[in-house]
Specification:
By secondary structure, this protein is mainly beta. It has helices spanning 44-47, 54-59, 124-130, and strands at 5-7, 17-20, 28-35, 67-79, 83-89, 95-104, 111-118, 135-142, 145-157, 160-165, 168-172, 177-180, 192-198, 203-214, 216-228, 234-247, 253-262, 281-283, 294-299, 302-307, 311-313, 317-338, 365-373, 387-394, 401-409, 417-440, 445-456, 462-469, 476-481, 486-489, 492-499, 504-514. Among the domains are: 5-122 and 188-214, no CATH class; 124-180, SH3 type barrels (Roll), CATH 2.30.30; 332-371 and 423-514, Immunoglobulin-like.
Length: 515
């Protein structure tokens, strides 16, 4: 049976202190959010829990949300004398009390002598626990009517109450309401910081309070729309970017100044945030109503995105805000790559890998990528926070937007290339075989001859990059090849193929390893 709790005659504030809430006029809030989430790694269950969801319990625990926030608030306070008690309510439930800072803006000589953090919030179970051997009223449904019983609570466990009244002992297994006369000492309705403050000036003052809280994070999502270009290897992109902000800190932040930090900030125990680093700012967005969006600037070795209008972040909510206006007609290149050996195999031993079977099991899939330049010439040129990239394409038959693939990117500075992996090409396949392998241990040389075939079953000409991984040893050279290739790095070669419709291309080369 569902239970409801009725609280009457609650005595909340003590005469010695003043309770200062976030809803008090004159309060201003600023919140800076840091994320440690891997791009694309935030599951929907984290920010869309149902009341009975296992994920809601899992992610509501301290440290479960991959991120944190620095909250700063200016609030009016009232000081009663040389030593006063101030109750600072509406702080986040997942606050780290050791990070709290207090400054009296109107009287810099004011100091905090003691701080207590009270977080024992009111709940039916805690109220029942505190009212053992005390009088309560219980409402029970008897058929089609409700009956209220008053007595001394002797036990409350597993949803069962033992009540002693004038009629004796009564065991109650189901009830629809509880009524208590007072709020027991130590239980509060909101998380509260209580300070013992010393000040020479009494009366109205303004305090600036800062603290760190867990349970807050943010991440970026990119929505790309692809359109074909003049040929099979070129195209155009419309690039839109949004940030999602997840708040499960146990606190709400109305009309707050919102800042997002992009970059990997090292966390040290009790580390302090650097506050003032000058940098040139750049506006990223402005909506049709003329309200500014995010402004980006370099901030130490990171990037800071500041929303140019107030934002409200309710507790248990996810908010999406446009990061920058959609960049239209960004030139891109479609790249097909055949990597027959694959990235899953890697040799890191202290000796050359002389097993002739390396490469006998190869894949046939040809991977599809989109590549574009994040520069101003292409219509981009802004630092891109790490995030998930989703790519769609319009079906000309009905104008529907169809999903064609997604990938994740790391933090990408301006003027860098962005490579997005979409999936596997349907009509282009590859084949890799080892034609010959020889080892001369006395001369410390081995040679391997590889043949790669790529077949194009499309009706259009395509360009394919054959990627070969030179994994047997670190010292190698190509001694013979049918197609001129390019050494990309110490372990990879690229061989370009241009294939007409229904054409097969062949790359055959011999690599010599020495040690």
């Amino acid at each position: 049976m569902a239970r409801t709790v009725g609280l009457t005659a609650l005595m909340f504030a003590c005469a010695a202190g003043t309770a200062i809430g976030a809803d008090k006029p004159g309060t201003t809030t600023s919140i800076t959010i840091y994320s440690s989430a891997q791009p694309g790694a935030v599951p929907p269950e984290m920010y869309r829990p149902t009341p009975m969801s296992q994920y809601q319990y899992q992610y509501r625990q301290p440290g479960a949300i991959p991120g944190f926030a620095i909250v700063r608030q200016d609030r009016p306070i009232s000081l009663g004398g040389p030593v006063s008690e101030v109750k600072f309510t509406d702080v986040a439930a997942l606050i780290d009390p050791t990070t709290v800072s207090f400054t009296c803006l109107t009287d810099p000589g004011t100091t905090v002598l003691e701080q207590n953090y009270q977080f024992d919030l009111v709940s039916s179970d805690k109220l029942l626990e505190r009212f053992i051997d005390r009088e309560i009223s219980v409402t029970v449904l008897r058929g089609d009517h409700a009956e209220t019983m008053t007595g001394t609570l002797l036990s409350a466990a597993a949803g069962q109450l033992v009540l002693r009244s004038g009629e004796g002992l009564e065991m109650i297994n189901g009830y629809s309401g509880l009524s208590f006369s007072t709020l027991p000492e130590g239980l509060i309705t909101r998380p509260t910081l209580i300070w013992r403050v010393a000040s020479k000036a009494a009366g109205a003052q303004t305090a600036r309070v800062g603290y760190e809280t867990q349970g807050v994070t943010w991440w970026a999502d990119y929505n790309l729309v692809y359109a074909d270009g003049k040929d099979q290897n070129s195209g155009m992109l419309d690039v839109g970017a949004w940030v999602s902000i997840l708040n499960q800190s146990g606190g709400s932040y109305p009309d707050a100044t919102l800042k997002l930090v992009a970059g990997e900030v090292n966390r040290a125990p009790r580390g302090q945030m650097n506050q003032n680093y000058p940098a040139a700012a750049r506006s990223l967005a402005a909506d049709e109503a003329g309200q500014a969006g995010f402004q980006e600037k370099a901030f130490f070795e990171y990037h800071l995105y500041t929303l140019q209008r107030p934002a409200t972040l309710p507790d248990n909510s996810t908010k999406q805000i446009e990061l920058f206006p959609t960049a239209q007609k960004v030139p891109c290149e479609k790249v097909l790559v055949y990597d027959g050996l694959g990235a899953d195999w890697w040799w890191g031993g202290n000796d050359p890998y002389t097993d002739a079977n390396l490469g006998s099991q190869t894949k046939k899939d040809v991977d599809t990528y989109l590549r574009f330049k994040n520069d101003e010439k292409s219509g981009m040129g802004m630092p891109l926070p790490a995030g998930r990239i989703r790519v769609s394409k319009v079906d000309p038959a009905d104008g529907a937007m169809e999903f064609i693939g997604e990938d994740v990117i790391r933090h990408t500075p301006r003027d860098e290339e962005v490579l997005v992996k979409l999936g596997k090409a349907f009509d282009v396949v590859g084949e890799r075989i080892v034609l010959d392998f020889q080892v001369d241990t006395s001369r410390k040389i081995m040679e391997e001859t590889i043949e790669v075939k790529v077949r194009n079953h499309k009706k259009e000409t395509v360009e394919v990059v054959v990627q070969e991984r030179m994994l047997r040893w670190m010292t190698w050279e190509i001694v013979k090849t049918t197609i001129e290739g390019k050494k990309v790095d110490s372990r990879r070669m690229h061989f370009p193929l241009t294939l007409k419709p229904n054409e097969e291309g062949v790359v055959r080369y011999t690599a010599r390893y020495s040690w």
